[in-house]
Amino acid sequence: xxxxxxxxxxxxxxxxxxxxxxxxxxxxxxxxxxxxxxxxxxxxxxxxxxxxxxxxxxxxxxxxxxxxxxxxxxxxxxxxxxxxxxxxxxxxxxxxxxxxxxxxxxxxxxxxxxxxxxxxxxxxxxxxxxxxxxxxxxxxxxxxxxxxxxx
Length: 151
Prior knowledge:
The chain is mostly helical. The protein is built from seven helices and no strands. Helices cover 52% and strands 0% of the residues.
C-alpha cells in the first residue's frame, strides 16, 4: 500500500520535457558537412539525447522513469547538442573538440548509452557505423582546420 501511494505521489513530481526552439544557423549542419546517410545514423542513435528534437517516449511521462530519461536528455544536450552546435567566437575549435569526442565515445562504446539501447535496440551502432562516424569526424576536423583563416 505504501509503495502504491509513493508511486502515485511521484507522478506529481514532473520535470520538464522540453524541445526548445532553435535556429537553423546554429545546427551542426550549418558548420559541419553531414552526409545524408550519416545524418540518419546520428539522428537514430544520438538525436533523442543530443538535439532539441527529442522524441519523448511514453515512459518519459511516468515517474520515476521520467526522472531518469529527462536527466539523461538534459545531460546529453549539455555535452553535445546538434541543434545548438555553433558557438560564435569559439569556432572551429569547439567543433573540432566535439567531433573528436563523438568519435572517441562511439569507438569505446560509451555512446549510445547501454541503458538507451536496451530499450531502443535500433540505436545500436554497428562496427561499420562506428568506423564511418570516426572517418567523417576526422575528415571534418581536417577540413575545419584547413578552412580556418590564419592557420
